[in-house]
Design brief:
The structure is a homotetramer. Chain A is α/β, with parallel strands linked by helices and about 350 residues long. Chain A has eleven helices and 14 strands. In chain A, the strands form three sheets. An eight-stranded parallel beta barrel of chain A has the order 7-8-9-10-11-12-13-14, surrounded by six helices. In chain A, helix 6 crosses helix 7.
Amino acid sequence: MIVEMRKGATKKEIDAVTARAKNLGLGIQMNQGTDKTVVAILGSNTGQLQTDVFAVLPGVESVTRIMKPYKLVSREFQAKNAIVNVNGIEIGGKRLVVMAGPCAVENQGQLAKSAEIVKAVGAVILRGGAFKPRTSPFSFQGLKKEGLELLDRVRKQYGMPVITEVTDSNDVGLISSYCDILQVGSRNMQNYVLLSAVGQMKCPVVLKRGFSCTVTEWLTAADYILAEGNKNVILCERGIRTFEDSTRFSLDVSSIPVIKRASYLPVIVDPSHAAGHYQLVPSLAKAAVAAGADGLLIEVHPNPKEALVDGLQSLSPSDFTRLMRELKPIAEAVGRTF
Amino acid sequence: MIVEMRKGATKKEIDAVTARAKNLGLGIQMNQGTDKTVVAILGSNTGQLQTDVFAVLPGVESVTRIMKPYKLVSREFQAKNAIVNVNGIEIGGKRLVVMAGPCAVENQGQLAKSAEIVKAVGAVILRGGAFKPRTSPFSFQGLKKEGLELLDRVRKQYGMPVITEVTDSNDVGLISSYCDILQVGSRNMQNYVLLSAVGQMKCPVVLKRGFSCTVTEWLTAADYILAEGNKNVILCERGIRTFEDSTRFSLDVSSIPVIKRASYLPVIVDPSHAAGHYQLVPSLAKAAVAAGADGLLIEVHPNPKEALVDGLQSLSPSDFTRLMRELKPIAEAVGRTF
Amino acid sequence: MIVEMRKGATKKEIDAVTARAKNLGLGIQMNQGTDKTVVAILGSNTGQLQTDVFAVLPGVESVTRIMKPYKLVSREFQAKNAIVNVNGIEIGGKRLVVMAGPCAVENQGQLAKSAEIVKAVGAVILRGGAFKPRTSPFSFQGLKKEGLELLDRVRKQYGMPVITEVTDSNDVGLISSYCDILQVGSRNMQNYVLLSAVGQMKCPVVLKRGFSCTVTEWLTAADYILAEGNKNVILCERGIRTFEDSTRFSLDVSSIPVIKRASYLPVIVDPSHAAGHYQLVPSLAKAAVAAGADGLLIEVHPNPKEALVDGLQSLSPSDFTRLMRELKPIAEAVGRTF
Amino acid sequence: MIVEMRKGATKKEIDAVTARAKNLGLGIQMNQGTDKTVVAILGSNTGQLQTDVFAVLPGVESVTRIMKPYKLVSREFQAKNAIVNVNGIEIGGKRLVVMAGPCAVENQGQLAKSAEIVKAVGAVILRGGAFKPRTSPFSFQGLKKEGLELLDRVRKQYGMPVITEVTDSNDVGLISSYCDILQVGSRNMQNYVLLSAVGQMKCPVVLKRGFSCTVTEWLTAADYILAEGNKNVILCERGIRTFEDSTRFSLDVSSIPVIKRASYLPVIVDPSHAAGHYQLVPSLAKAAVAAGADGLLIEVHPNPKEALVDGLQSLSPSDFTRLMRELKPIAEAVGRTF
């Protein structure tokens, strides 16, 4: 942590900074510049220290953190890539893992049909939402417990692990008994009570990026889950909010290589929520694979025209089949099996 | 809702749009342009309808919603300004209401001292956090239940209503028994389970704006609370995330007049979280009052240098005293009592 | 264009809207909703009409444009993909075109060495800046005319067309006599005098996206060039400004498929300025190709450690060689020759 | 400048950093942390140095600039507030200066009428655009030279100084002979050729903030003007681009106190372009004055319904009269004469 003193800061002000550092058990190093003094604060946990601790002191111009605020998810903490195992399927390994299915579970027929379609062309995990966080209270909120039961039935029928979203700390136990991967959605990425709750489970967790959170905040949120003991975390990029309005969100494809440098956790991409439109999904899916994603989470509906939620961004069976065929050579070009 | 057909859309495609509208009990009006057909979808609840319902149909180029997605909070729903009454203090009326106090409750002495200071110069509601949502799991998370008890003791001692944050649906009952206003924080603005839970209480709720949510999404989130029966909602602007990095967030002062046009709910402003620095807080507080805010929520600490959380954005007693003195003529200039 | 009247708008107010439409030679269609009247304004040039024309009238709640504001670059204007020919090299055709070279021309040796390196592994166009727009007046501003002469010499020596930036309308004539493609940089995307000036040339123009401009604004800016008669426009995505700070800009990979739907112009991608760091460039380059870009514009320096400008985002010869090898199978996977 | 080495960086890598610093005539100070080495680079011009110079070296993890990149506009360069004198009117002094008039000069009658109206209620400078930068080439581009002549005539008739926009370096001489203040618009804030050209004049310059530029970039752009010798620079906040779509841009009211700390230059606010709607302009104007702005730049049209450009954001004569009356007590509350 670097504390820049104001031009003309007094000795007493500088001493207050060094005294506080010593109080906190931190080392210091003085840098006497031509115009101003800069104090370097040294210690192994300065990433977790608030900059305010020094910034409030008189005579301080600015405080800059050098260490990252995340710790347990950092590649400095663990150098080797983590592989999250879901019923024998490895996420973060050599194989590109495709998770697909409808946005919302609607009924037995729709879900079973979805599983059949996506499994036939190579998807290995089924997605489907039972608890749906919706912008308006007047929109369809999901089938809830009934949806979970359908997921459970279909995963057994097709032998596919299932991923579904959890939106409240109360529901973690219930939902995890019906699924194989818990999904924490974008709007809950900073719901720390929920993060702690899923951290107390053993079940793999897909942590979607908050649509206005930096990669650093996202990795720090993942620390909440690991801090409780659950190491089975998969990150999922799903687009960020920008000024651009031709897509629902802007897929931040750069976050893939950024995370690969900063962390050892697997990262997958949801091109459907980023694009918001089925015609754009294939390009984004291909870009994600080319950029190094470990997997994809794609919305597919047997009949998007009749979907209760997000029909426009759902691929039809034929679109999905074509996409899977087109993804194969790209996956292979970046050294993946598929 | 306006459905623009693609240039060259077939009669069959247009018929599918009108058939779907009729199925949904909606009226339609055809607009035959020179190049393309535009279908207007008519009905009183088209604001709550998903655009996807039409956008997925073949031959559709784009769908534009004309009606707003929020309903119960809309000025079309209720023309007259709402006044939320907190133990006799009216929020949304002629008086400018100042809520002030520390970011986090630290101990009895700090809280009582804060109450004494802010009450002495005109603040009428005490703020203080017991459950703190923190970016890192390694940061101080608040005193929790013990903090609530301190809030309860101090509100009685000083005769000031208290506002504190709730971060999980489980805690709503507990927290509401110790405070007078429940605060839903920025990171939980789209935690719909929590919104529904506070909606089932009678207690006034301050709903902070999600730092990356539009005014429209914010008002729609408020609909969740009203839909459950709780009409005592106060909106709180607290800055949005932008590319600008000289402040912690960018105070969207425009949201005040925008909300005053769109809704009848009171709106207050938190200049502390927007600024992130005590030296910027007074200017933002004054701007908010001049722009028409009904109140302010300000962080004040007896000794910011020793604050456990957010010391840099907390006003010292002398800074707060000066600000309150300077706010008075501005409040009066815009027709407020103070 | 859709004009939504306020609830309770009077007949007189509605008549004023229809009268103005007729004055402008536009058709109208009335949509009498349950709550409010919506007037559709019909005509072939409503995309170029300002919404203000109606929005200022009393009783109008909002005005929504349905038609796009751009015209000449639109796929509705020309269905077939354009191919821009640069000395026999086709941009926008089947071949993936790679343009590479240093950010700034520094001296004869550096430029010639760059040309040799990039040509050897498959780049077909040489980039190099002589007029450099720099954030600070105290930074190196480029070799200017001397830089142009070096570009001219090297393009002849290596038989490679050259692309270089123009930053002022005055310089368009001079610069175009030394290069094969004029580049309009991100900060000048809305410098309309410059756009008109390059529009009066016949030389191909690469129009970089303004880092905070929407795709719609970008296409409308391209209309300025086409409106003056120059049809040889190539669009270049180079990252947009967002809140994310782990990269210099956020590459908006979605803009590639969005533009392919909306326009017939070729689109290339500059992964270097988006990433800001050489370690991230390869992933972004691969993502761009997979998403359908027609070409790449990449910064390569014989010795990035000694670069005068943007060394951190420049690839070294060995990095570039590896990238070109890795791009080949991805290009082929999406049906490109390379 | 702070250079953080990677964990495990070798002595040779660290030596390369210190050698480069010495080559550049800079001092260094080593900070040996528990995990990694941090090198502080010391010198008076490190704000103008590119971080890339060190970031490209092997073993470097990150480089953080402590000094600001701007220099001549900095409060460290000059402590005392500058006052820009326009024909005896002081901008940056005790008086709140209001500049008002139409977006575009349309004809003699419209401009004279505007001058009459705004002067009558206290505006002291007349605004009016002759060269209009427009998003679409098919929109009205201003009266150009004819517009300048009208401005000249009307400023003499009403004895009011005039401000008008310059959009190309070629036009600087011409335009400055017809006006009293040159305005550099938002889209040209990083048109460095234009900045240098206005820097060579003596005429006061209003430098509008680029709608996606940080305060730091804005101040650095102002350095271009001062570096050429023109010290008469007035900064103008006019809203930034964010995700919020209920206003045309988001007025960054925080930039006012931020600039007051960082620079000695006067800062004014244009609430019209930020709001985009006349009903929101008064709140923003009041907020700006309360936050400490030195002046306002407001669009007023004798008859907004007939305005050729931006009618929706123009105040009518009666709206402007009311606003000026309402601004007076706010200006006085913050210690301004009006």
